[in-house]
Write a structure and sequence with these properties.
Radius of gyration: 16 Å
Number of strands: 4
Mean pLDDT: 84
Helix content: over 70%
Shape: globular
Number of helices: 7
Largest sheet: 2 strands, antiparallel
Strand order of the largest sheet: 1-2
Structural class: mainly alpha
Length: about 180
């Protein structure tokens, strides 16, 4: 329920979505741990929560006429971002291979994209909204596969579908008034 409210607030590009979402990260970390999604559990607790708290305050400082200013990465910045994501994926894959998780590849993918999304959001780069769509799609695939063996995961599957819709709306809203960082 809290996640649904957070995603709705995000469609309005509200910094309060970030505050509530940060607190919600603690609950997520516990849930992910029990689902053997160790990457996402670690990400929610050690990255998402503190970075979202920082983002809340950073977005307050970076407003003009009551709206948060959103920037766009340069092409060089996007290329560097891709390289960082690939390297992080390999490092975390190696680390989380030590745990027994049947969802290692998808969990690791969502973890890396999720951390990068949070950092981009903190820094007010519009690309965070694109990555939110990607991570929501990967989550939908993972939870759909999980639901085949455990029907209780269907709630997470529905949540992922809802996130895709909200992330898409957020993507279009962040396109308004972007300041290029080329």
């Amino acid at each position: 329920m809290v996640s649904a409210a957070v995603m709705f607030m995000q469609t309005r590009v509200s910094r309060y979505a970030i505050l509530v979402g940060g607190a919600n990260s603690i609950i997520y970390s516990i849930s992910y741990f029990f689902m053997q999604l160790y990457g996402q559990a670690s990400s929610a607790l050690f990255f998402s929560f503190p970075l979202q708290m920082l983002t809340f305050f950073n977005w307050k400082r970076s407003t003009r006429k009551g709206k948060t200013e959103i920037k766009r990465l340069s092409p060089k910045g996007r290329l560097m971002l891709f390289g960082i994501m690939a390297a992080a994926w390999l490092v975390l894959y190696t680390l989380f291979s030590l745990f027994d998780s049947p969802w290692l590849v998808l969990d690791n993918t969502v973890t890396v994209i999720g951390v990068v999304t949070t950092v981009l959001c903190l820094l007010r780069y519009s690309e965070y909204s694109v990555l939110q769509i990607v991570t929501s799609c990967v989550n939908l695939g993972m939870f759909t596969a999980m639901t085949r063996t455990d029907p209780t995961r269907a709630v997470w599957m529905v949540h992922s579908a809802y996130c895709i819709i909200c992330a898409t709306v957020t993507f279009y809203k962040t396109r308004k008034g972007i300041k290029n960082d080329d």
